[in-house]
Specification:
single chain, alpha/beta, Metallo-beta-lactamase, Chain A, eight-stranded mixed sheet, five-stranded mixed sheet
Length: 265
């Protein structure tokens, strides 16, 4: 595993802002043997803070969308950033891992930011695939329209498969969950950490080698496991996007932020 040499590490945080305690294993795993068993789902966004700048990674979910989809909204992700000393109105770069509604809410809270997104994802959400209800089920048209507007305002950068956003922070296309799903690699004091975003919803997917139910390409979803293992220091350096176990495996950023903001580095 290559190292970053003398590169200053980032502080890396996960913000737990919503949950769904009624979720079942049948909703999560293909060919699940116990489909009625409960398997709660948490919702996270992330932020990396370092000498190269502050990088918000996904913007969480809007409260109205949480209510629409039956999730329990715990904290506004924007208010959570402020608890870390991050002023959203001053943030200059936001990385969007894909355009599902639980990753692109609250975009208007970042008036100075330029947004980074896989070109493949924008191609996907304005393609004939959106004529299929299954393909568009996790997208919200008003939020997609917002990103089209950002493109016309020169505030959205559509990049190719792999891109270094800043020293020690890069994005990598893996597909699978959706056509433009990307993961984020971050250099931290414990080495290279990979934010899987929705390339992995639960640790169990990686441990058992099984796909999540919401998939554009199941083969890509599974080969993404290999790519994450190539980029991360170890399996313990891969952070999934919806597993309540994240709150158990990582410490709170401060004692008053337990089960809310976690330190991943």
């Amino acid at each position: 595993m290559p190292t970053a040499g003398a590169m200053p590490p980032y502080e890396l945080y996960a913000i737990r802002y919503a949950t769904n305690r009624k979720r079942t294993r049948g909703q999560n795993f293909i060919f699940e043997a116990q489909p009625e068993m409960l398997q709660p789902m948490d919702f996270y966004s992330w932020v990396a803070i370092g000498e190269a700048g502050t990088f918000v990674i996904d913007t969480g979910m809007a409260r109205a969308k949480a209510e629409k989809h039956g999730h329990d909204y715990l904290h506004c992700p924007i208010d959570s950033l402020r608890l870390l000393g991050v002023a959203p109105e001053q943030v200059e770069q936001v990385v969007i891992t894909h355009l599902h509604y639980d990753h692109i809410g609250n975009v208007s809270a970042f008036p100075k930011a330029r947004f980074e997104l896989q070109k493949a994802e924008m191609d996907f959400v304005v393609s004939p695939f959106m004529q299929k209800s299954w393909c568009r089920r996790a997208y919200e048209v008003d939020e997609i329209s917002h990103f089209v507007a950002l493109l016309h305002q020169d505030r959205l950068v559509l990049h190719g498969a792999d891109k270094q956003i800043a020293p020690g922070l890069s994005v990598h296309l893996v597909g699978g969950h959706c056509a433009g799903q990307e993961i984020v690699r971050v250099w931290t004091r414990r080495g290279w950490v990979v934010l899987a975003s929705d390339a992995l919803h639960y640790y169990e997917e990686l441990e058992r080698g099984v796909p999540f139910t919401v998939a554009f390409n199941v083969a890509e979803m599974l080969t993404a496991h290999d790519r994450m293992r190539e980029l991360a220091e170890s399996d313990a350096h891969i952070v999934v996007s919806h597993d309540p176990l994240v709150s158990e495996r990582y410490p709170a950023a401060r004692p008053d932020l337990a089960d809310h903001i976690l330190r991943l580095d």
